[in-house]
Amino acid sequence: MESLKRKIETEGVGVGTEVVKVDMFLNHKIDVQLAVEMGQAFHEAFKDDQVDAILTVEASGIITGMTTAMAFGNIPVIFAKKGERRNIGNDVYTAEVYSFTHQKSNIIRVSRNYLKAGMRVLIIDDFLANGAAINGLISIVEEAGATLVGAGVCIEKGWQPGGDHLRGKGVKLVSLAICDRIEDGKIICRD
Ligand code: 5GP
Q1: Stated pTM of the model
Q2: Which residues, including other chains, have CB under 8 Å from residue 87's CB and lie 6 or more apart?
Q3: Mean pLDDT, 10 residues at a time, the chain of 191 residues
Q4: Which atom of ligand 1 is the closest one to the Cα of 18?
Q5: What spacing in Å lies between the alpha carbon of 101 and ligand 1's midpoint?
Q6: Predicted local confidence at residue 85, as pLDDT
Q7: Which atom, in ligand 1's list, is nearest to the CA of 23?
Q8: Which residues line ligand 1 (CB under 6 A)?
């Protein structure tokens, strides 16, 4: 998606050689118009896949999860919750996910009331790095007996293995921008 790539390259900041900082439009301050366009792009990619619901993980995935759901005509968004929560109850699917940014493991939880067998689920997230978050969500989809339609990510970091691993497993993966490297703080996206 050209507008996203240009935005990453002009406004994003590379931290060291590994971390892509886009909190000026995606992870802290939000460019809502861009988020709407990303939702439309995911809809275009998955519109023939009979998607019943979007599954994402709090917090940043919710933004594009919602705009994608609206592009599909207001289908539900279910977001996995992180950490211990009293108000979600015990009737949950869980997965352990190692966080690349926080360098620790989190348990993510999705209520069994909302994710049901037979549902056709599209996973959406902001970033794909090593794939831990998406693999955790996939294991929850499988445990629920739901069907994984595919996964959409705003930004794939091409130097980390998550994207190639998912493609190798046969997952329909749509990355709106793939970053190839960071050079002196500048992020270089693939054409
Ligand atoms: P993975 O689980 O694929 O290793 O990493 C994806 C998750 O980690 C995303 O949900 C995202 O929140 C976070 N993440 C990974 N790499 C980056 C990065 O370079 N920048 C930001 N802002 N978040 C990242």
Answers
A1: 0.97
A2: none
A3: 97 96 98 98 98 97 98 98 76 93 91 97 98 98 98 98 98 98 97 91
A4: 19
A5: 6
A6: 66
A7: 22
A8: 19-20, 22, 27, 60, 100-101, 125-133, 157, 162
